[in-house]
Amino acid sequence: MEQIALVIGATGITGSNLVEKLLDKGWKTYGLARNPNKHIKNLNHLSADLLSLDSLRTALENVNPTHVFITSWMRNDTEAENIRINSAMVRNLLEVLAIKKTVQHVALVTGLKHYLGPFEAYAAEGFLPETPVSEEHPRLDIENFYYAQEDEMYAAAVRDHFTWSIHRPHTVIGKAVGNLMNMGTTLAVYATICKEQNRPFRWPGSAAQWNGVSDMTDARLLAEHLIWAATTPAARNEAFNVVNGDVFRWSTLWKKLAAKFDIEPIGYTGTIYSLEAEMKDDAPVWEEISTRYGLKENNLERLASAWHTDLDLGRPIEVITDMSKSRKLGFLTYQQTEESFYDLFSQLRAEHLIP
């Protein structure tokens, strides 16, 4: 039977890497986004508003997917709104697909906020998990839009008889423009500004993150993990952590990243510096840099998400991830995190997004 993929959020870091992997593997692939990226060759582009049933029905009228990959979410001002909006997106999608009776598997991408708490209480006192975080850890006793998304998927799976998988990456490293959570590109843009303005590459995070052990998730590895879980019987109806497989310390990696841009690194000095505050006046600086070097994107906000980098690097504890569950079931793909950053920087330069 032909494998037909529907990727929700096909323009994001995870979604764009996933559609490329699926196409490489010969899947018929549809990519749905509010504003599709039509530069991906052989991808069937769909445009729809996940909050509108009519919009989804129109976009999916002639689409009969066997596998659905949900990689999209929408940021709101409060967690209550995050829950309302993001659960509706999952519910609406699966309701529209239910009538087709073709869906065999649904994969949902969430993240480590499952263990750390939502943005409003992110890794705050009272919500500090044991690390390494494990899929066996119970849900926190706090509202979390990831839980609401999961519950919508569980209910639809019972109703429509499909299998499912949940994927919880750590910080995802990969290329995307206009993405809400984009540490790799954010740091590349920040480093470029530092170089052009002769500013120090200042560490914006906590002592715990600077000195502790951490891990990350390459978007390419996450894409492989999504396809593996969707096609491996033993991985059905399971939640998985997914990271590169190595660990590192920012105190070492920060200096190496600075060296890639030939700039001066400054590590933790006893104070957390907000990268969002550091870059708040840099929009015109980036426009000037973009003009000088003929870059493709002159809108700083479409490249850098400093607020999210602050959240990740400002955690009061080190955060590492137990991936034993996937390993035991046969997912053995490995990616060195340092190389993930270097590969990203090379890609950003090749595509004229940084000089």
TrEMBL record:
Residues 66-355 form the PRISE-like Rossmann-fold domain. Pfam families: PRISE. CDD domains: 5beta-POR_like_SDR_a. Coiled coil: none annotated. InterPro entries: NAD(P)-bd_dom_sf, PRISE-like_Rossmann-fold. This is Nucleoside-diphosphate-sugar epimerase.
